[in-house]
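Can't attach files on this board, so I'm pasting raw text. These are the components:
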Amino acid sequence: MTSEEEPFHSVESILQEFIPEEKLRLVNSVLYGETLRKLDLSSAEAESNFDVAGYKFEAKPESSRQPRIVRVGVIQNHIGNPVVSTNVPQERSAIYERVGRIIHQAGRCGVNVLCLQEAWPMPFAFCTREKHPWCEFAESAIDGPSTKFLQALCTKYNMVIVSPILERDDVTDVIWNTAVVIDNHGRVLGKHRKNHIPRVGDFNESTYYFEGNTGHPVFETEFGRIAINICYGRHHPLNWLMFGLNGAEIVFNPSATITGLSEPLWGIEARNAAVANGYFTCAINRVGSEEFPNQFTSGDGKPAHTKFGHFYGSSYITAPNGTRTPGLSRTRDGLLVAELDLNLNRQVRDIWGFQMTQRLPLYVDSLTKASELSFEPQRMK
Amino acid sequence: MTSEEEPFHSVESILQEFIPEEKLRLVNSVLYGETLRKLDLSSAEAESNFDVAGYKFEAKPESSRQPRIVRVGVIQNHIGNPVVSTNVPQERSAIYERVGRIIHQAGRCGVNVLCLQEAWPMPFAFCTREKHPWCEFAESAIDGPSTKFLQALCTKYNMVIVSPILERDDVTDVIWNTAVVIDNHGRVLGKHRKNHIPRVGDFNESTYYFEGNTGHPVFETEFGRIAINICYGRHHPLNWLMFGLNGAEIVFNPSATITGLSEPLWGIEARNAAVANGYFTCAINRVGSEEFPNQFTSGDGKPAHTKFGHFYGSSYITAPNGTRTPGLSRTRDGLLVAELDLNLNRQVRDIWGFQMTQRLPLYVDSLTKASELSFEPQRMK
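---
Top answer:
Structure tokens for the assembled complex are below.
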């Protein structure tokens, strides 16, 4: 599945291979923060076609609060058939088969809250700008096939699953890019529609859906307060901010993004958001290339082609103090598990004081002015 | 000057030493973005006690606009006497002597806009929480000794200098943490007072000064529109945002921060701001340890001590596409020069569309609600 142009597994594997241990410790302390202990995930069964990794984010003990431990999981994966056919149910089934195997492992690892990648039950066909047949992948958030498929797994493993899908509104037929939150009893807790839509190269997604109308909801699960910042929304600090102001403790960023476009930004944005907002973030990207039946162009002056990608994976999790896990592979499917003590959020907020020093009223005033047509920027000549 | 505990020069020097060239190219493409060409800085004279490095950020040629080339420089340095006396003019002179030598080199490198580190004309004495004698370092922005010292250099080298000082208001005696912008004709173009003040460990700076009252000014220089986000303001995405909305093309972040507190965040925050706001950012940190006459404590349960630091340097410059320079040393004084084509800002904004997709009115509405005492967060149970 590894494409020839993109053979390398990860930055971390290169660092590990060549840098002596003592020096690597220094490099990692600057690039990744504190050293994280690995989780014992021997309850997962070894499978050859995806990686499983797990880390532990610890907080200081407090005399007034018990630790608030939660295991989160993120899954990155290729689609079922890298050469996509126009038979929608068939393509969807191949993905369910592939992702289902990994979800079972997440269950065996004791994951409490799992998030899948953006538009996980479909190829990322938006590059084609063809409506037929790809719009057939759009489905109901409440009782579509993907929700039904996951509900059984939620119940089986007592696990919340965040399911980012292409949603078709049951009444109006409008299509949205939506994350459905299914709780650990298999009930749909709610949904969030992607707030910011890209118009970039192969990601002219505004062809298919509009800016979301669901605000910045935070979902109160049995395992903590979660929110979802879908893909391109990670470029918008205000989006991250509002999830924080609404009380999110963990924000997932299910994404689909490719080498040559965003990779130098990938390690920065979700991580910066964790620090700025005092919560955990989980950045998830799909993996591999996807080939479509018809030619398309990418808005870059290059010849028409049928292959899209390489999606570079590299999913990772960051704590509010900026410490992050290594990334999953750039080329292979994977399950990344992290055990979080949610007490760390408040501990880090107490240390840094970003919430106290934020001066929100100042910015309400400035942004109000800046959003008016008569706005005059503050300039000194 | 290198302290025993902090012997390593930089992450980049370790990567360079151990990773083979072909693999290093891959690592750097993920960690640092595009490969930057080095500037020819042979006009600078070799000096043994500081480093000089220079890089070039290029933009695509356009048929309707000429390139807009500007050379920016940032200086990181130890104070003049690492063991600080209470003789304020003497300490200040030692710093002028040390920094002056580097400024001359910046002039010889053709730097158009230069920025010094936070509170550059003084030791970072705020850790002591003693008012006497350190408040004596506070000086007029208009005609204080540091402004006068720099005005001559601005004129000599046709160079704008951003001078972050401890400012004493000429009328009220109030002290501020201020960046003074002196233009290339030696005139004070204006000043900006630090908007967000830390209360963290050795950085209980609210003892000395209050949150700034100058908004988010952008200074229109002959070489481009610049702004200054002072130190702890880099943790606040809204602060970066307002400088962007006011039209900044280059935002300097003069700082003073130490190992063990912020280092894993250092490479993220100013870089994320460049990406999110479509401008260049220049992150500057001082270097080394500073020793004070009297003992102080650091709010961390450890015994009283007299030594403060290690400030870890690592100053760097980032383009709006996320590509960044290597950092200056963690241990040595340095001058980092970058030649920017400011056309890159608009080119990257056109590619990514973050300004178009920002939905400012949505956030004005949400933040207005969030700043009210009656605010009810958007939660789903």
